[in-house]
Amino acid sequence: MKLAMVVPVLNEAATLALKLQALAPLRARGAELIVVDGGSTDGTLAIAQALADRVLQAPRGRASQLNAGAAVTRADVLLFLHADTQLPADADQLIEPALQHGHRWGRFDVHIEGRHPLLPLVAWFMNRRSRLTGIATGDQAMFVQRRLFESVGGFAALPLMEDIDLSQRLKAIEAPACLRECVTTSGRRWDERGFWRTVLLMWRLRAAHALGTDAHTLALRYGYRPRAPASVAIMAKAPVAGLAKTRLIPLLGAAGAARAQRGFALRTLATARSASTGEVTLWCAPDAAHRFFRALAVRRGVATMGPARR
Prior knowledge:
Elements: E1 3-9, H1 13-21, H2 24-28, E2 32-37, H3 44-51, E3 54-57, H4 62-71, E4 77-80, E5 85-86, H5 91-100, E6 105-113, H6 119-133, E7 143-145, H7 146-151, H8 162-171, E8 177-186, H9 188-193, H10 195-210, H11 215-222, E9 232-237, H12 249-275, E10 280-285, H13 291-300, E11 303-305
Parallel strand pairs: 1-2, 1-4, 2-3, 6-8, 9-10, 10-11
Antiparallel strand pairs: 4-7, 5-8, 6-7
């Protein structure tokens, strides 16, 4: 089994290093760690680059970030891990038997770490409800075979309840594996917002979702303030010596001008994706077949467009 762990992050610099270092045993056994940043403004990106196998940038939002991470790996199994959730050190060895026994997706039980004495009770109800309904949440570290994930279209473009939505579509195909081993997730939202207030809010949101309330409305009730979506198109010429940045050739030489073109394209792309205003598309000249553009598509999940090569 080849496992890929996909971790969406946004301004997690304070705790990210410890969280990623805890995944070292799984990486040592061959698991791939993919961190997808949603436009952090602290040191999150630098920390991730030092401790992950791949670091991507994608429009802000868990669904968008998780889909971007899933798109760049060919691993057999995808494990979607929130940045504030910690896996057992032998998570891969727990998942593999479940898959060998016929399951194609599943989740762990969850333990909530926080100050309030009733958080263990909340975790018990979450785990019990999940077993009864076959619905998993992102806090429970969902895992799924990549082919099954792709066959249902991945995460829907929702600002909230994207995990519930995916679970419902997977459950329609087959029931999940409900592992009794626990992941540990942070109870900071209960600690910061108030225990009973958070419990009541989550019940109301789940009830409204079950009754068909629009996910964007639910996100606003939860406290998200999503930006108005805006697509960004970047036009870039392939960094070919003698054809790219020709006005700089007298100063830098043909090869140097091509390297400058490559650097300009990478910086522009990083700036646009970090802004997280919406989908970013790279329009390629003369076409998208150049190895520079192909590498961006494969390694960084960049959407590339251009005239088809004849």
